[in-house]
Design goal:
The chain contains 22 helices and 16 strands. The two termini are about 35 Å apart. The longest helix has about 35 residues. The protein is of the alpha/beta class and about 725 residues long. It is about 35% helix and about 10% strand. It has an 8-stranded parallel β-barrel with strand order 8-10-11-12-13-14-15-16. The protein binds 4-O-methyl-alpha-D-glucopyranuronic acid (GCV). 4-O-methyl-alpha-D-glucopyranuronic acid binds next to loops.
Amino acid sequence: MAVTRREFVSTTLAGLAMLDSGLAWADPAQAIAPGATLGAEDGYRLWLRYAPLGSQAEVYRSAVRRIVVEGSSPTADVTRTELASGMAGLLGVAVPAGRDGIQAGSVVVGTPATSSAIRGLNLEPALKALGPEGYIIRSVRVANQPVTVVASLGEVGALYGAFHLLRLVQTAQPIATLDVSERPKVTLRLLNHWDNLNGTIERGYAGRSLWNWASLPDTLDPRYVDYARANASIGINGAVVNNVNADVRVLSPEYLPKVAALANVFRPYGVKMYLSANFAAPVRLGGLTTADPLDAGVLAWWKAKVDEIYRLVPDFGGFCVKANSEGQPGPKDYNRNHAEGANMLAEAFAPHGGNVIWRAFIYDEDVDPDRAKRAYIEFTKLDGQFKPNVLVQVKNGAIDFMPREPFHPLFGALEKTPVLAEIQGTQEYLGQARHLVYLGTMWEEFFKADTHVKGPGSTVGRTLDGSIHPSRVTGIVSVVNPGLDRNWSGHHFSQSNWYASGRLAWNHELTARAVADEWTRMTFGNQPATVDTVVDMMMRSREIFVNYTMPIGLHHLIGGDHYAPMPQNAKSQRADWTATYYHQASKDGIGFDRTMRGNGAVGQYAPAVRDRFDNLQTCPEEFLLWFHRLPWTYRVKSGRTLWEELIVKYYQGATDAAGLQTTWQSLAGRVDPQRHKEVADRLVIQVEHAAQWRDQILTYFQQFSGMPLNPPAGSSAPPVSRGV
Ligand code: GCV
């Protein structure tokens, strides 16, 4: 059900009036319907189900008798609403909420500016150290009454604290003696949507775009609120809402009011609006004859455009730009470099405090024959030339979101340029919305990878949070694809990747297991057997996927759909869009020689990493064929030949995928029937396609290895001939 702007405001106000009168929250505009019964488990409510805790609720009731959120800002209002409705749902009792009335068992939320109770606790020095998005949650006494205080310097920080408290209750953690201090490790925690203005989503696997551009700005789908709530609950503070392959019209006077209407919905939740900008907009939209970044008229056009945006969206975050990449226009069209292009836009943003996020996903063929080397070569030359409000956004790996890639050598390499990491939750190359693949483990591996740029311990995470090269702005960005599918993400488990991308952006040192545990409890309940089983499935899922698709450092064994196996893919517009360019299989062997004796790509890493990858004895086997070209008879650490090892990995992966299916079946009756069946249906596809990956890849490579394709001992897998 869509509501108009006027209805939206009035239902929200009506809901607040109910809260103050002590009634449980029941805002019809809140489509997630916190606290609804378990009947409709269609996945819409994501991890914010607030399902009744049953007998576990009792221990919380005395600590959550009333919600007190002073102040009447939009953020204070949504904080009060969320806490009251969430706690009511979890505890199974109405939890009155208001702006005052502290009593024993109150949850008191606010800032020193909004709350006299918080002022009285002298928390300001500690809060200052945590910044406006950090928060403290403490069990204290106010007016001699035991209360739980959630305090922050900023109202959005207080909202984050409220979500933290809700998470503690959702995951059945004790809350009687709390002393929590949190602050985000990076300043920008953004989502990138690759949504097109016509409603399609590039690499989107969960239905059409959330943004209904035709009905904006007058009609606001309640889903926009739920989207913002979900993001705030995991600390996301900005969203680039349109595709980096950007349609210029998003910057037009027709679209900007629509963008502003969305920004207004997101604002109370601390989610800032960003847009992808097309570098040729001065020509394609503005009617100029050039988009040359050194042309004064072009700069004037962008300045006027950026001023226009800020008039409508005063807290606009900035532009994300894909330039001179995959056919997009950019400064090189005018013989200018990336710094000249980015700096021109940065100048337009400087008066407003906005940023230009310039993507490093560039791979011009004339730079180097190896796609993996190109961005490093171009961007290291420009380090120090970017204006302070240019941030360079670098994908986790140097190719493109492969199931497993070594970290991009640009991490840690740019000392004078702020670098944001771009990770991808959409599962583009990772089974899309058909395969159960939790990416927390992949991102943990990435954030913990040691770049050695300043000696041991220079992890990618520490290069991102400013510990290695201090930086004014730091950040982690995730490409996500929530769409109009009822469950937002296509596959119920794909929700966990949206969730994990936010949680790990907040704190890249969290473990993938801890994040999986939280998500599972909030998504499927706290029943220990269910939690253990689901977390175990999630923790193994990515390695299983790697094994049945691209183990031992193989990569890009796909065709244009980025889903099905296509190792024979040798023809495309560009060599580096094929599969054969990467695996280079022949009778002599397989793999891409990126060693110092090969094309020298390992030399883009710090010496300790370079040497580790370069040396066959020390190169981790999961990256073997990424960096080395080896004969089929090469002996890997298990003592098997490379060919035998590939067989073992592919069989293991397909067998383990079937194992996931069996394990999920064991949860029948523990997980609600609808979600259980929908996941089970996807697992049927996954198991079938895993076997097809195994068979197609192995039969293809066998023509080169010339060695027998003997299934590992004990395997009873039947041959599969049909393609994925
Ligand atoms: C948005 C890959 C994807 C493209 C995507 C591009 C990018 O090439 O397949 O769909 O385009 O990355 O990140 O810009």
